[in-house]
Amino acid sequence: MSNSAAVSNGNGTVPYFEIENTSIPTVPKDRILVKTVAFAINPTDWKHLAYKRGPKGAIVGSDLSGIIEEVGSGVSGFSKGDIVGAWAHGGYEKGIGAFQQYAIVHPSQTIKFPKSEIDVEKVVAVGDAPSGPIDTFEGAASVPLGLSTVGMSFANQLKLKVENKSSYADKYILIWGGATATGILAIQVAKVVYGLKVIAAASKRNSDFLTSLGADFVVDYSDADAVAQIKKIGAGKIYYGFDTISYKTTFQALYDATSETDGPVVLDNLLGLNASSIETDESKTNVRYGSTLAYLVTGETVNIGKGPIPPPKDLVKDYNQFWFKVLPSYLPKLKHSGLKVLKPGLESAAEGLALSQENKVKAQKIVFRG
Ligand SMILES: NC(=O)c1ccc[n+]([C@@H]2O[C@H](COP(=O)([O-])OP(=O)(O)OC[C@H]3O[C@@H](n4cnc5c(N)ncnc54)[C@H](OP(=O)(O)O)[C@@H]3O)[C@@H](O)[C@H]2O)c1
């Protein structure tokens, strides 16, 4: 049997990949082989290709959904035939990546959906589809990397614990970039799983949508006084900040908006920023800075950007608790974002990567079938 795959050309130039017939990967004992059905695009997919983070022969893409074909001998909790959403570190090493007929994934990157939750017959039509419960292969493909990112941030960096939920009822989290794919999931997890009050910074046009997902307040980040508005709403009780955009300017805004919090504050971001990236008040010593990199959830060191990045302390313990023990019971309460569904076929990855790289899709996840 052959395996059709979007294989990176390794040269950093569009179209980035070719569709090739490769062999079905052998399953390492700690991994899972998924027969893929649908895929989703993430900004990291084109970044890995454009910045040549992996070799020729790496497979493009991160997010997928499908049916488990084979389970490595050392993996428990998953079986052949399970319906899953999963993600892989695409564009980074040969043979690994989502956009292929048979993909290898790690259990910590895999969400098992109850068979009753996913309508396996339903194919979401090409075009725009609204946000809704995760009940199709398209919806299931749109959430895995985002949920891993939120899980790592909240469980390991922000150190949120579901057993402390009652203590979060009067505490705020500020999610900068509430309408990003990551932010849309972060708002829901903050609200539904941890019971936090949520302030989201997002464009005004997304305000009603984000409120429907659980944001208590949505502030338009393009308002000149956005930080002042957030400070007023938070009234000294914004203890957690999550910056899904992670420009120096947005991380600065996160810092400034939480500057009046009376107590320890944790500020997390997704692109390796820290205190030295922004202007801080040296007299304020109660701020801790986090940096989330979802690639680390397997517990392995990764080599992207400036050099080897090891997993942070307690990552596997904190994250696995969230991923395997907490998340499953909340999955039916979570919604995927609006979808932009492309034509079926791995070739659609080229259109998806271009739309993402050109920043043309807002508050939607680009998905397509294989
Ligand atoms: N470290 C990790 O593990 C990790 C994991 C996932 C993603 N990432 C990175 O995180 C970033 C976000 O990825 P994503 O897939 O979640 O995003 P995305 O869905 O592609 O984000 C699109 C949204 O960004 C919002 N946006 C743009 N500029 C903004 C600003 N200045 N302030 C607030 N919102 C702004 C827009 O919201 P409006 O429509 O409201 O304007 C737009 O709808 C990317 O750089 C990605 O590579 C990192």
Give structural notes:
The structure is a single chain. Helices cover 25% and strands 26% of the residues. By secondary structure, it is an alpha/beta fold. The strands form five sheets. Strands 3, 4, 5, 6, 7, 8, 19 and 20 form an eight-stranded mixed sheet that branches. It has a six-stranded parallel sheet with strand order 12-11-10-13-14-15, with helices on both faces. The protein has a two-stranded antiparallel ribbon with strand order 1-2. Strand 19, helix 9 and strand 20 form a beta-alpha-beta unit. Helix 1 (43-50) packs across helix 9 and helix 3 (144-157) packs across helix 8. The longest helix is centred in the C-terminal third of the chain and has 16 residues, at 315-330. The protein is globular. The two termini are 16 Å apart. Residues 42-44, 145, 149, 176-177, 179-182, 201-203, 206, 221, 244-245, 250, 270, 292-294, 362-363 line the site of NADP nicotinamide-adenine-dinucleotide phosphate. NADP nicotinamide-adenine-dinucleotide phosphate (NAP) binds next to helix 1, helix 3 and helix 4. This is Enoyl reductase (ER) domain-containing protein.
Describe the protein's topology:
Elements: E1 2-8, E2 17-23, E3 32-40, H1 43-50, E4 63-71, E5 83-87, E6 102-105, E7 110-113, E8 127-129, E9 132-133, H2 137-141, H3 144-157, E10 172-176, H4 181-193, E11 197-201, H5 207-213, E12 217-219, H6 226-234, E13 238-243, H7 248-257, E14 265-269, E15 287-291, E16 302-304, E17 307-309, H8 315-330, E18 335-336, E19 338-341, H9 348-357, E20 364-369
Helix pairs in contact: 1-9, 3-4, 3-8, 6-7
Domain Enoyl reductase (ER): 12-368
Organism: [Candida] railenensis
InterPro entries: ADH-like_C, ADH-like_N, ER, GroES-like_sf, NAD(P)-bd_dom_sf, Trans-enoyl_RdTase-like
